[in-house]
Amino acid sequence: MKRADGSVMKKKIIDLIEEALNVPKGTITEDTRIADVEEWDSLAHVMIIGELEEKLGISIPLEEAVELTGMQELFVCAGIQTE
Hints:
The chain has 83 residues and is mainly α. Helix content is 54%, strand content 0%. It contains 4 helices and no strands. Helix 1 (3-21) crosses helix 2.
């Protein structure tokens, strides 16, 4: 995947998560850790994983989804190259 495509997809994922969590733009960054976001609880996590698949076509297996601790891991699971 080309770098430009990766950064566009990262932005789409971040936008989707901010919308799902109902937090202000800029709250979620590429370096955000899930534990640092009060609104990102287990129910929100399940909803986000579902939204990623439904709206962006990103399928993350449940066993991987429950292990996620931050955005960098989420990007890797979504198949986006991270530097």
